[in-house]
Amino acid sequence: MKQLLFTFLSICLLSIAFFSSCCSDCDHIECQNGGVCNGGICDCTEGWGGDNCQTAISCSVVTCGVNQTCVVDSTTNTANCECLLGWASDATGECSIDISTILTGGNNANGTFYTVVDSCNLSIFFYSAHLYEAPSGVTSFYIEGWGGFDAPIVVALANVIDSTHFVISEQTNPNWGLTINGATGTFSADGSTIVCTYTITFADGITESCTMTMTRI
Q1: How do residues 31-65 score in pLDDT, each as one tens digit?
Q2: Which percentage of the chain shows pLDDT scores above 70?
Q3: What is the maximum span of the chain, computed from C-alpha positions, in angstroms?
Q4: Domain 101-216, CATH among 2.40.128.420, 3.30.70.1340, 3.40.50.720, 3.10.310.10
Q5: Whole-structure pTM over 0.70, yes or no?
Q6: 193: enclosing H helix or E strand
Q7: What is the pLDDT of residues 14-27, one digit of tens each?
Q8: What letters, b where the CB count within 10 A reaches 16 and e where it falls short, cover 65-78?
Q9: Beta carbons of 132 and 141 less than 8 angstroms apart
Q10: Strands 171-172 and 178-187, how do they pair?
Q11: Phi-psi region at 197: left, alpha or beta (left = phi > 0; alpha = psi -120 to 50)
Q12: Which of 11, 14, 66, 166 has an alpha carbon 20 to 30 Å from 159's alpha carbon atom?
């Protein structure tokens, strides 16, 4: 009986040794981007993270395309390519769309026209405005006919801040008779609709706040 028990224990020990030698914690672990498995855990090379070293965590390992730049997200600890200011991504993910082109109807040379409903604290105005690209290119555009004033024509410079927003800094002109105190605006993905909230101060000191809704003609 003792011999039988000894034989059984020997077989068990040999089996454990056999399977231990055949199987490894790393057998089913696939480390990517140069990572090496150690005890079932991937040791990643510099710039990579994640369970399988599949996630870029540093811009040093990221190559971005045209009109793109790499940005590290501190919240998710990931490095990703984003479009440069003034550019938007197309259906393939490439940053090939000039945002000013979106707002000027694809015709930056001549721009495009919008009908405007300007709802102000004193009254409501209806007029048309002309949008065209500024000389500085993709990051800015002009709104000609701002406020619907008969004379002189106010041409406000707007600056794109991302694919759906723009800002207008405080600006004036000796011929305007008013100062645009600043504005923020949003636009639809195709540029067909623009909404802008702004405040102006006239030469006599009267201040008016308005929300301008523009629809492409």
Answers
A1: 999 999 999 999 999 999 999 999 999 999 999 99
A2: 87
A3: 114
A4: 2.40.128.420
A5: no
A6: strand 193-202
A7: 454 444 445 678 99
A8: eebbebeeeeeeeb
A9: yes
A10: antiparallel
A11: beta
A12: 66
Cα–Cα distances in angstroms (integers) from residue 26 to residues 31, 34, 137, in the given order: 9, 15, 54
Asked if 203 contacts 193 with a C-beta cutoff of 8 angstroms, the reply is no
The token duo for 59 is 């811009």
Q: In the predicted model, what is the mean pLDDT of the chain?
A: 86
Q: What average pLDDT does range 157-183 have in this prediction?
A: 91
Domains 29-83 and 101-216 share a fold: no
Residues 139, 144, 176: CA angle, nearest 5 degrees:
110
For the chain, the domains span: 29-83, 101-216
DSSP 154: P
Q: Do 168 and 129 form a contact (C-beta atoms < 8 A)?
A: no
CB 134 within 8 A of CB 142: yes
- pLDDT tens by residue, 139-155: 889 999 998 877 788 99
Q: Which of 198, 143, 132 is nearest to 170 (CA)?
A: 198
Q: Which amino acid is at 90?
A: D
Sign of CA dihedral 173, 176, 177, 180: negative
Token readout for 165 is: 């927003």
- Is 29-83 a domain of CATH 3.40.50? no
Tokens of 100: 């000013």
